[in-house]
Amino acid sequence: MTTQVALVGGTGKLGRIIHGVIDDLDGFEVRNVLGSASGLGELDGADLIVDASTPAVSVEVVRVALERGINILIGTSGWSQERISLVRPLQASAGTGVVFIPNFSIGSALGTALAATAARFFPFAEIVETHRDTKIDSPSGTAVRTAELMADAREAEGPFHAPHVDQRARGQQVSGIPVHSLRRPGVIARQEAILSGAGETLTIVHDTVDSAAAYAPGIRLALPFARDTHELVVGLENVIDLGVRS
What we know:
Layout: E1 3-8, H1 13-24, E2 28-34, E3 48-51, H2 55-68, E4 71-74, H3 81-94, E5 98-100, H4 106-119, E6 124-131, H5 141-153, E7 172-174, E8 177-183, E9 189-197, E10 200-208, H6 211-228, E11 232-234, H7 237-240
Helix pairs in contact: 1-6, 2-3, 4-5
């Protein structure tokens, strides 16, 4: 039986990549593509919703998915732990599968996992993330997710040291970690997690140089997972099991 997918934001950069993956994936078919002029009633009849819209639209898409009992895969950025915590009781009540993937790149998931693993050994940390100038939100969802997992990993050791964060130039604090966002043309995505201790620095860098090639493998893994799960899951690392749990 073919899984019918409603793709929200399917005409955007990520949406077009997802559409291409679904077209090549056995057992999945795009039922309809929702754009800015579409009504959310068009989600009816889908077996799976895939959301690649904007942060503002994504909230409503998730709400409708839960109300109608349709599993949903969210690739839209801007979902912090705080926002996701508001969804958890609704998901638990509905039993609908809800999967948040801030970044479909397997390399990015590995970079985040490595940063979280290293976090408990270094008392200082900062994140620098760079995206093209057309990206709407900052910090990126990937940077937020990385900072949250790094802070969680340091629960026993205590928070990172972050001096002078009252100064605006020190970046935005996410889970106690200064995050710096660069927006400029000529790049796709880059993230640096910089961890420092006495006498040494560890920098974990991930570069996306071809978004279609980088995201497609993760999307292929996430689609059947999101279709079949009855839980709320955050992060590609929890789809492909890199050993990091939130």
